[in-house]
Specification:
alpha+beta, Butyryl-CoA Dehydrogenase, subunit A, domain 3, single chain
C-alpha cells in the first residue's frame, strides 16, 4: 500500500501534537507567580532562591512530588499512549495490508491519550483560576505557557483522531460502493448471458 497524503498528514499532526505535549510536560509554565514560583509537573522553581526542587515540603508535611503524583502519572501516560498510537499509525502506513482496524486502533489509543492530557489541563486550569482568585490583587501572574503549548498539542492530536475516523468511514463507504457495483455488474452479466441463450 502506498503512503497516502492523508496518512502523511495524520502522522505529521499527531507527531507534532505529541511533541508539543511532551514539551509542555517538562516546562515550568503550568502556573507562575514571578515573585514566588513557577510550577512544572515534576518540580517547582522558587524565584527568590533560584532553586528548583521536587522534594520541597508543601501542604504540611507532604512532599510536593506526592501531591502531584496523579498529575505526573497522567501526563506521562498521555505521552506514552500518544507514542504508541503514533507507532500503530506508522505501522499501518508502511504495511502492505489494507486492514481498516489499524488506523482505528491508533485513533482510539490517541483518543485515550488526549483524554489523559485533557484531565491534566483541566486540573491546572482550575489550579490557576483558584490561585488567581486568591492572590489577584497582590501579585503579578504570568500566562501559563505550558498550558497553552499543551492545548495546541491536544488540538493537533484531536485533529488527527477526527481525520482517522472520517478517513475510515470514507474508506468503508468506498468499499461498500465497490462491492455493490461488483454485484450489479455480475447480475448484469448474468442477465446478458441469459438473453444470448
Amino acid at each position: 500500500m502506498a503512503i497516502t497524503r492523508q496518512l502523511i498528514i495524520n502522522l505529521t499532526t499527531s507527531a507534532v501534537g505529541i511533541f508539543l505535549c511532551l514539551v509542555a510536560l517538562v516546562t515550568p509554565g503550568w502556573g507562575s507567580i514571578p515573585e514566588l514560583f513557577s510550577i512544572s509537573i515534576f518540580y517547582v522553581c522558587f524565584t527568590k532562591s533560584g532553586e528548583c526542587s521536587a522534594t520541597e515540603i508543601y501542604d504540611g508535611d507532604v512532599p510536593l512530588y506526592l501531591i502531584l503524583i496523579d498529575v505526573q502519572l497522567g501526563g506521562v501516560l498521555a505521552i506514552v499512549l500518544g507514542v504508541v498510537g503514533w507507532l500503530a499509525l506508522l505501522v499501518y502506513a508502511i504495511s502492505n495490508e489494507s486492514s481498516a482496524s489499524s488506523p482505528v486502533t491508533s485513533g482510539i489509543i490517541l483518543l485515550v491519550a488526549s483524554t489523559f492530557e485533557s484531565v491534566l489541563l483541566v486540573k491546572f486550569v482550575v489550579f490557576n483560576i483558584m490561585v488567581f482568585k486568591e492572590l489577584y490583587k497582590s501579585v503579578q501572574f504570568i500566562l501559563p505557557y505550558s498550558i497553552i503549548i499543551s492545548i495546541f498539542g491536544l488540538f493537533l492530536i484531536m485533529f488527527t483522531v477526527v481525520r482517522i475516523f472520517i478517513g475510515n468511514r470514507q474508506r468503508e463507504n468506498n468499499h461498500l460502493r465497490t462491492d455493490n457495483s461488483l454485484v450489479i455488474t455480475t447480475e448484469t452479466y448474468s442477465q446478458l448471458e441469459l438473453h444470448r441463450i
